[in-house]
Amino acid sequence: MVTFTVRPISPAEHLDHVRSQRSVSFLQTPAWAGVKTEWRSESLGWYAGDRLVGTGLVLHRPVPRLGRTLAYLPWGPDIDWAGGLTVWFPPLVSYLRSQGAFAIRIAPPVPTDTWTAAQVKDGIADPDVVRLTDLPGSISSVGAEVTRYLREAGWIPQNPEHGFGAGQPQFTYEIPLRHADGTARSEDDVLRGMNQLWRRNIKKAVKAGVEVTTSAGGEDLKAFHDLYVHTAERDRFTARPLAYFEKMFAALSAEEPGRIALYLARHHGDLVAATIYVRVGAHAWYVYGASSTDKRDVRGSNALQWAMIRDSLAAGCDVYDLRGITPTLAADDPHVGLIQFKVGTGGQAVRYVGEWDLLLRPVLYRAFDLYMRRRGR
């Protein structure tokens, strides 16, 4: 059996490996360390002899005054999850233990189940169905094996019932941009996969004169943030500060030109919607969005989504990722509107393995968990 070693690598070595892959989460790029500057970070490499075969960005979250850390690999690591995990994980655990980690948290980028848009739509219409998991989906054998391995190896799942926790969402909504045989889908094919309301709203935006432009940030980022704060107040979520987005654009843009972009929808000069788009290799993400309460009837948000999908197709992407959804399908749940909006694009709902913790020092872990609960994470 092949044995691996894990050791630190430079950001340049890490980036070279990312560029060799079709899909790596932007949260696992070396640039993300430049966004999460409040945590100590390091790039790790798995080696088979002298050959680099896997990478991971580790964010070390410290326990105040104790000098120990939670070692977190968001949407990672980037390894061969279909391979034998018994050779991948022991060297990672050994290394992070030696670096003072009291626990390790991972979020494998591995699906366990998928549901088509038609299945989700039928589930929303069925009063006896309240969650995605009430529906029969397509099951991934790799996802099932990863879940089994983690459970038997003593890892503890950290996946809240409603799908959103302190870390990454377990449920996402994605639009495949390739057919089952690997050939690229066309714009017309993707449009045909959308529901009638989505197609109508895209046309309505064009007819209303909505103009979509892209930007590398700069002064436009302040306009986005103003609209984002307005959206947060309307929809009752906590907005991130402008400095966070400035840091995000600076770090990701420096790593790879075009890695991150701002999309802006204007109607007669008024900014009506704005989004942040990220692409790594053949995977594209809709990361943040904002919209004006006024002029919602011109459908700026639909225009932006279509623009980002078209650009993803033009870039040869495999998937356009609308990121998190909650698994609820109950008509009276306030979160169901999110999945209803996204299901109109066609595509599929996906459940991932989720986040899992391995406790290396249980007493410290419990103290950290209590500390995080008291400060609301």
UniProtKB/TrEMBL annotation:
Identify the keywords attached in UniProt to this record, alphabetized: Acyltransferase, Cell shape, Cell wall biogenesis/degradation, Peptidoglycan synthesis, Transferase
Claim: Signal is one of the keywords in the record: no
What GO molecular functions are on record for this protein?
aminoacyltransferase activity
What Gene3D superfamilies would the database entry show? 3.40.630.30
Any Pfam family from its record, for instance, is: FemAB
> InterPro entries of this UniProt entry?
Acyl_CoA_acyltransferase, FEMABX, PG_Glycine_Bridge_Synth
**What GO biological process terms does the UniProt entry carry, in alphabetical order?**
cell wall organization; peptidoglycan biosynthetic process; regulation of cell shape
PROSITE patterns membership: FEMABX
- Record PANTHER family: LIPID II:GLYCINE GLYCYLTRANSFERASE
**Stated family:** Belongs to the FemABX family.
Protein name (database record): Vancomycin resistance protein VanK
Q: Which organism is it from?
A: Nocardioides albertanoniae
